[in-house]
Amino acid sequence: MLSSTVFASRSAAPQLLSVFESVAGAPLPVRVRCWDGSVAGPESAAVTVTFRNRRALRRILWSPNELGLGRAYVAGDLEITGDLFALLEDPDVIGRVARRDLRTLGWRELAGHTGTFVRLGALGPRPKPPAEELIRRRGAKHSKARDAEVVSRHYDVGNDFYRLLLGPSMVYSCGYWERGTAGTLEDAQHDKLDLVCRKLGLQPGMRLLDVGCGWGSMAIHAARHYGVRAVGVTVSGQQCTLARARVAAAGVADRVEIRLQDYRDVTDGPYDAIASIGMSEHVGDAQFDTYLAGMARLLRPEGRLLNQAIASVAPLADPSHEPPNFVDRYVFPDGELLPLSRVQGAVERAGLETRDCESLREHYGLTLRHWVDNLRGSWAEATALAGPEQARIWLLYLAASAVSFERGRITVNQVLAVRPGDRGGSGMPSTREEWLGTVGHAPFDPAAGSAGNAAA
């Protein structure tokens, strides 16, 4: 019988681990398992990466960056067991392997790795991408038709799937952990919605426009707790259907209207307030000034706009020079994260005055970890509803996003702006404590919360 050392020298796993550690320039804290049963790497590793077949390697060779790894994982050619967060948090794995293009290696090193892949029988034709990948898109980028197509691709995975992921609140944006980690996800989403209402200064009888209303949670909360008349717009058919049902179940159908409508087609202003929560990432850089100018026209003088959006922490890169990435192909087609400076400039050009800006970066990391727990806790049901490929997409996306927020690679901002009134008036109290204080703050009502959950 051959010793384990001799067996390992003839096996796939040690050779593969050697290649990836060469790319990373450091030992990797992962265990590698291959199709031939071989294993390499520390036994104490928190994560095991299994290459189930040689096709996983071909996917990486044809797309030698995060997209190739993502394709292999989504297709099930590559499996990850153990602590996924430990893998994503390690800078050598993510920064030097997943984001490094093998074509940037020196020719000697590249030739050596190519020889390894030849010996492993990994060379071959380009594998077809998983069916879940969106490669071709119809129409001009951010045209109404194309936006409707890509938004449907993301949000029409299924309402029941999102219910598992998001919990009863059905709020698909970061919570506000006002109560700290002792609070629940439902507490955090209630408190985030209430924070938005307070920043907007909502009062009974006001008209609120909720742009990108999702499943109606913001409109329902504002109508029930602040007595407003709300209009919510979405271009997702499945969201619209469920949002209308939730509005009726919450008993606010006389005050809330949900429309299947593009934000560019809303013309029935003026509104007293506009909330845009996690929607403007779909607008795009080229359309952002037009988007904010349109929102400004819909506001009455001294009306307020709150725009909450995930943001880049670096200047905008030229998209033509960026390699294709996992998020664009599988999660948020055509999504664009703008830096805060870009948003602020557009606010000013729209004739609005910025009154407040708050980063919720740490809040989003915590929210995403709760969504990951929800998905893992309902894994069998999630895969039955959406398919194992979609479930893997979402697990990888949510976990990687949590780490990105926690490490400061991306952030999320709430920007509050006002349309100036006569002589430049804002209609706002003179101190932040006054307009964000306890006056009008809706404390969590267990009875109302139960009704809301039933409506969800």
Structural class: alpha/beta
Low-confidence stretches: 1-9, 443-456
Q: Sheet bearing the most strands, described?
A: 7 strands, mixed
The CATH C-level class name of the largest domain: Alpha Beta
Return the domain count: 2
Q: What is the CATH topology assignment of the largest domain?
A: Rossmann fold
| Percent in strands | 15-25%
| Alpha-carbon distance between the two ends | 61 Å
Described by the principal axes of the CA atoms, the overall outline is elongated
Number of strands: 11
Mean pLDDT: 87
CATH architecture of the largest domain: 3-Layer(aba) Sandwich
> Can you identify the CATH superfamily of the largest domain?
Vaccinia Virus protein VP39
- Widest sheet: strand order? 7-6-5-8-9-11-10
Short overview:
This protein has 456 residues and is of the alpha/beta class.
